[in-house]
UniProtKB/TrEMBL annotation:
Residues 1-17 form the signal peptide. Keywords: Signal. This is Nuclear transport factor 2 family protein. Residues 26-46 are annotated as: Disordered. InterPro entries: DUF4440 (IPR027843), NTF2-like_dom_sf (IPR032710). Residues 76-179 form the DUF4440 domain. Gene3D superfamilies: 3.10.450.50.
Length: 191
């Protein structure tokens, strides 16, 4: 019960902090911090198809895209791993380097400010499992992963450990894979 209260408290604090942003922050929908899709398709859509991003919320079986060339698979997963490792290392510059210039999901400058603020308030680590490329095209790839996050608020010591599923969309820019958007849904904690 205490963990549930702590989790709810952290969620409320994060919502209040988000509500306290400037009016211009409305353009930040779909950033790597808010987990919101900007393409009109929510992360709760079932299955990954040709027109949208999503994943099966209830199933445990994730199918790897069959058409991924081995070299591209290595390059895509390398960028995804750098993105996760840079976040865990609190290496904001390296994290920002993984992000796409051509995205409407986030603004790199604002993302940097948000991460600096976030890391000053929380000790946070993400652990990923079941990392799978679920969709591949020559210029776009979607990487599914299960995330387990451990979060501790530095000022209060409150801890929470949310889990969820994420699809990270990567696009090619000048031959390099970059993170274009992130779609996340938390697991049902009432199970």
């Amino acid at each position: 019960m205490k963990k549930w209260f702590v989790f709810c408290l952290v969620v409320v604090m994060m919502l209040l902090a988000a509500c306290n942003k400037e009016e211009g922050a409305a353009s930040q929908h779909g950033s790597v911090n808010d987990g919101e899709s900007v393409n009109g398709h929510g992360a709760i859509d079932h299955g990954v198809d040709d027109k949208k991003v999503g994943f099966n919320v209830t199933g445990d079986s994730i199918e790897e895209a069959a058409n991924v060339p081995a070299e591209e698979k290595d390059r895509i997963l390398e960028v995804f791993n750098v993105y996760i490792d840079a976040f865990n290392d609190k290496d904001i510059d390296r994290y920002i380097e993984t992000l796409s210039e051509r995205t409407e999901s986030f603004n790199k400058e604002q993302e940097q400010v948000d991460l600096e603020d976030y890391f000053s308030q929380y000790d946070i680590q993400r652990e990923v499992t079941d990392v799978t490329i679920v969709k591949y095209e020559e210029e776009e790839a979607q990487v599914f992963a299960k995330l387990a996050t451990s979060m501790k608020q530095l000022s209060t010591g409150l801890e929470t450990n949310p889990t969820g599923r994420q699809v990270t969309v990567l696009t090619k820019e000048d031959g390099e894979w970059k993170i274009a958007s992130v779609h996340y849904i938390g697991d049902d904690i009432s199970k």
